[in-house]
Amino acid sequence: MTLNVFRNRFGDTVEISILPGMVVIQMLLMGIISCYQVMSHKRSVLLTQIWAYRCQNGRMQVLYFAQVTYHLVTNSDVYYLGLATGTLTIESVANLTFCFFAFSYSFVNMLKARSGEQQLARHFRLVWELIQLAMVTCVASMLYIYRLTSLSYIIDANGVVQFETCQKATMSMQSLVNAAYMTYFLAAKSVPVVAVGSSIVFAISPWPTVSTIRRARSTLQFSFAPFFFYFVQSIIYTLYGWTTGNPVVGGTSLLGVVLGSYYVLIFYKYARDRTQATRMLTSAMLVILLLTHQVATRSPEETQMIIGIPANILSVFTAASPLLQIKNILRRKDASCLPFGMSVMNVVAGTIWGTYGVMLGDPLVICPNLFALTMGAIQVSLILLYPGGKGGNDAEQKAKSSPPTKPTKKLSPRSKKKIEHPE
Description:
The structure is a single chain. This protein has two domains: about 1-165, no CATH class; about 190-395. The longest helix has about 35 residues, at about 170-205. Helix 8 (about 150-165) runs antiparallel to helix 9 and helix 10 (about 205-215) packs parallel to helix 18 (about 390-400). By secondary structure, the protein is mainly α. It contains 19 helices and no strands. Helices cover about 80% and strands about 0% of the residues.
């Protein structure tokens, strides 16, 4: 415990970086400058779209993301010591809050970005900004509440490493072992948090595709399968979280149920032929009712396997479902039917959850996420190889611009005679 005091004093003397605050200021200035360009021009509608494009999908997002990542990498030891010893300052809380805001903002905007497209996407902006505001407020509140609370498990591991380092400081091999131990310890504590964050981003990732369907009032070239399997998978994982008493799995899956129901509803609303979708939803509801009955009537130990196996199978179906149209993609050399957000997040979430599964040594976590990583890599490769982004946009613009056709009136026999034999 005494050894931690020395590190505490060292951490207090480190200057606090102002980079996160500067990143947020850059983002605000970018928005103000673009808004000024809009207000000073007569064609405000076009410039509003350009402003939204710059704020959401501009290349500056990559710079914001890189700056925040650099700050977190170079200053992680200071924040680690502050959390370990309960000496996290107000400046550190502000920096971490700014980092979370800038990191999430730039990451989601880069995920949503489309090269060469300038879309307003105001529906996505309003919902995402409300979600982000709520998440930033929660993060800031949690950091402020626990900033003076030392986390015992970090202190214990820190004390063990410091004791071994002080006793055997001259042994380079021992120092290497200590470094490896602390790296594994930090990974074991941070990977679950990152995994939960990736699940939340995955739940939001289909939103741009669904917004495109809603604006076009048509399902365009997109398939119902990815949204359907994700919705059903979220319901079953919610049951699994409730059975195992795991609030993390249950909470993230419940968010997937809410958003997945919205995705399915929008697709079903604008689908021309609802026969297949109705059959799929009816069958899924029957299976879910059967599983719910098993959960309610059996012990948690018995239902864990009953719920876990279908959940893993549905995870595989969710990851592979966008590739049901692979024949059409290869034939037309157009991958615009693939949901970009879900494809990218299959790679990201599959990598993170697969790593977590390796750390747990759980094949039920490793196998489906390794499959999701593979399927996501194939989908992203197809999107990069056959972008073909104009097909969906042309269909959307045509659906917007074409006026509704008026039904033709049948001519009476008397009117036909007048047309054929005018007086």
